[in-house]
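Sequence of ATPase (Paraburkholderia unamae).
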Amino acid sequence: MTLGTRAFDILEVLLLAEGKLVSKDEIMRKVWPDCVVEENSLHVHMSAIRRAFGKDRDLITTVSRRGYRLKHGEATPATGEATRANTEENRHNLPRTPANLLGREQAVATLSARVGETRLLTLLGTGGIGKTRLAVALGFEALDNFSDGVFMVSLDSVSCSKEMIAKIADATLAGSVHRAQSLASLTQALAAKKALLILDGCELLVDAVAHCVDAVLKDCPGIHMLVTSRAPLNLSYEARVIVPPLTSLAPVVQAKHAPECAAVELFLARFFALCGGHNMSEAGMAAVRKVCNSLDGVPLAIELAAETAAIVGLDAFADDVERRILVFESRMKDLPAHQRTLSANFLRSETTLCDLERVVLRRLAVFPRAFDASEAVRIAADSRHDAASVEHALALLAEKSLLLRRQDGMKTRFEMFTLTRIFAHERLAACGEVADMQRKFDRLRREQDGPAAKMRIVASQAWPFAASQGRALDPA
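Predicted 3D structure, token representation.
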């Protein structure tokens, strides 16, 4: 991994301290002597240094709210590796497979402090947005702050509360004399521990997870929870963060700045890993930009697109993204089933919807861009689904990360990711409602005040939320 000049400067400051604690203020004063910078800048570079250290990342320790220390002369080469390996093995079960965090460096730096300060932090977002990878990175960053470790539990294939409790116990109590058979025995076993528990993929068991989390956090003061889900747990003390898409530049500026675009960089990294090489022609780059601009910065979609392009050819795929992308099946054997195709990814979300939510979601697919609640009612309401029901469904779909909710002044507007709209439109066609919904939409356009162009979108035009993609993670 390549480190920048500032990262090397920070490393030099820590080395010269010879194992002593160096305050954050001192590091910033020495590395940025003539500049005023935010503490987040230091966090970003420290995260990069730790990733560069790889398995030796524990050599840098964080003293909460004070500073950093680089371990100096504490282990001999003969015994140091074994000691570190044993300590690390006992203190976490995080995946050791390297994950590509392109475009998430700032997010890791921003959220690292919140993990230690907040008892329950939930990462929310549509399927494939990168919640799990971000949670793993935050888990590694948090190791120094939790003396009993960081433990991750995947709930992807869990179907009931009993199985969930057993998986949590297996992860957190390995080697312990405790054998948690119930929620009460689990909380008793964890009561004296200081640990971070990461629950990954909670959307299919939201109510059960909420009940478990509430019990653990109330009875175990040293436990913190980091949750990834497409829907919130709806606990009063839950801190929610919406994981945004990767930066995806609009066509006008892509030609000049595409190499700095995280979505393009992720596509190229995956494409070259599969095909070999490291150079792309200008024509090829144009095709990559076209593909990435149509995928709204969703990492899973970008990686599947790169894998598809590596097989069928970049030119052919770029000209037919929408038809191919939902059905392409990844050959990567370590991916969970719901991430091997985008259709499977959407089906996972669809299983959490009631009949009303499914009806409203598919009917809203006729909107090519943002709409408000009154417009949604004009399209989705009928004799069986009144206005209040549609408005309620809008709120639930936004809560489950299938609609994006934006404040436009005093007005709330909704929109879909491109891929969600494609999936919903397929459902609309399967139900034979395309013609009816299109007639409603055309009538609404004619009645709109102002030019009808407000409701149109050109295929190559950037989506309305593109301008906000570069921001730090937003509270939900």
